[in-house]
Design goal:
single chain, 328 residues, alpha/beta, TIM Barrel, 11 helices, 17% strand
C-alpha cells in the first residue's frame, strides 16, 4: 500500500520542505531580529540532527522531493556537514538547497560539492559596505561578496536574495541587476515582510509593482522568463545579460494559489504557511514517544487544514515571530 501524499483541501501537493536547523545567526538584520536582540532557544529545545533526519525522511515518504536548509544561519550549527551528507541519502529526495548569509559557507564548498548540493541562496541586501553594515549590524561585506564568486567559480547555481526597503537599499537595485550583466547570477528582490520579532510593522512602501516600475525605468526593454508552476518570483532578463533577476511579492502574496511549501522550524514547529500559526510541534510528539504513524497522521491533519492563502492564515494569527525562528 502506497503512502498518502501531502495534498491540501485545495488540491495543492506539498513537495518542498523548508527545514530550519537553528534559530541562531551571526548577523542581526533589522528585518529579521529586533535591535535589542533575541532570546534564542536553549540547545535542548532545538531538534537534534537525528530528529531532523527522522522527520525529513518521513516528509520524503509523503512526497517531499526538495528540502531547503535554512536558519538562522545554517552553518553556525556544528555538525551541519555530516547531517547534510546523511540527509542526501534519503530515498525520494531529489534536491537539497541552502540559504545562507555567505560568511561561513566558503570553507564548506568542497564538502557541499561532494554531497551533491549545487544550489545556494545568499541573503545580501546591499552592494555597499556601509549600507550592508547598517542592515546586518555586522561588518562582513567583503567575506560575503568573495564567497559569491568562489561559489560561482566552483560551479554552483547562486541566487542573491535582497529585501527591498525605503531608506535602506533602494540605490542598490540597479547595481544588483548590473551584477547579472557578466555573471550567471539570479538576483531576487523581495518585498519586506513582518517577521522581525516585534509587533510593529508598516505596510512596505516598495511593493512588487513599484520595484518593477523602478527597474523598468532604468531598463525599458526587459525579457520576461517562463516560470515553474510553483515559482514565487516573476523573473526577467535584461537582453544580453548573462544572469537574471526576479521579484517576489512576499508581502502581497500573489503566488499563494500554487504554493507547494511546508515549513519545519528549528524547535519543531510545523507551519503550512509562513504567515500562519504553527499547526503542531513535531519535536514534542517525537519526545513524547509518538509512533511514526501517529506523527505522519499529525502532518496529514495539518496539511488538510491548510488555509487558502497567506491572508487567510494571517487572519487567525496576530503576532509574527522572528524570521530566524521561522526559517523563511
Amino acid at each position: 500500500m502506497s503512502k498518502p501524499l501531502l495534498i491540501d483541501k485545495y488540491g495543492r501537493q506539498l513537495t518542498y520542505l523548508r527545514l530550519s536547523v537553528t534559530d541562531r545567526c551571526n548577523f542581526r538584520c533589522y528585518y529579521c531580529m529586533p535591535e535589542e536582540g533575541m532570546d534564542f532557544a536553549a540547545r535542548q529545545e532545538l531538534l537534534s540532527f537525528e530528529e531532523l533526519y527522522q522527520l525529513s525522511a518521513l516528509f520524503c515518504s509523503l512526497g517531499v522531493n526538495k528540502i531547503r536548509i535554512t536558519g538562522g544561519e545554517p552553518f553556525v550549527r556544528a555538525g551541519i556537514i555530516p547531517f547534510l551528507r546523511k540527509l542526501s541519502q534519503i530515498p525520494g529526495l531529489e534536491e537539497i538547497t541552502i540559504t545562507t548569509n555567505g560568511t561561513l559557507s566558503k570553507k564548506h564548498i568542497q564538502a557541499l560539492k561532494e554531497i551533491g548540493i549545487r544550489k545556494i541562496n545568499i541573503s545580501l541586501d546591499s552592494l555597499d559596505r556601509e549600507r550592508f553594515h547598517q542592515i546586518t549590524r555586522r561588518d562582513s561585506f567583503e567575506a560575503v561578496y568573495a564567497c559569491i564568486f568562489q561559489l560561482l567559480e566552483s560551479g554552483f547555481e547562486v541566487k542573491l536574495n535582497c529585501v527591498v526597503a525605503e531608506g535602506k537599499n533602494i540605490q542598490d537595485l540597479v547595481p544588483f541587476v548590473e551584477l547579472t550583466k557578466d555573471y550567471p547570477l539570479a538576483v531576487r528582490f523581495l518585498e519586506e515582510m513582518p517577521f522581525n520579532g516585534t509587533e510593529t510593522f508598516q505596510t512596505p512602501q516598495w511593493s512588487y509593482r513599484k520595484i518593477y516600475a523602478h527597474l523598468n525605468a532604468h531598463y525599458p526593454v526587459l525579457e520576461q522568463l517562463p516560470n515553474a508552476p510553483s515559482s514565487t518570483s516573476v523573473n526577467y532578463r535584461v537582453p544580453g545579460y548573462e544572469g537574471t533577476f526576479g521579484i517576489i511579492p512576499s508581502f502581497s502574496r500573489t503566488f499563494c494559489g500554487t504554493c507547494n511549501r511546508i515549513r519545519l522550524g528549528a524547535t519543531g514547529e510545523l507551519r503550512t504557511c509562513l504567515y500562519g500559526p504553527p499547526a503542531t510541534n513535531l519535536r514534542d510528539l517525537l519526545r513524547l514517544g509518538f509512533s511514526q504513524e501517529q506523527i505522519e497522521q499529525e502532518i496529514l491533519d495539518a496539511v488538510s487544514q491548510r488555509e487558502k492563502d497567506g491572508f487567510a492564515a494571517e487572519a487567525s494569527h496576530a503576532w509574527h515571530a522572528s524570521m530566524s525562528l521561522l526559517g523563511g
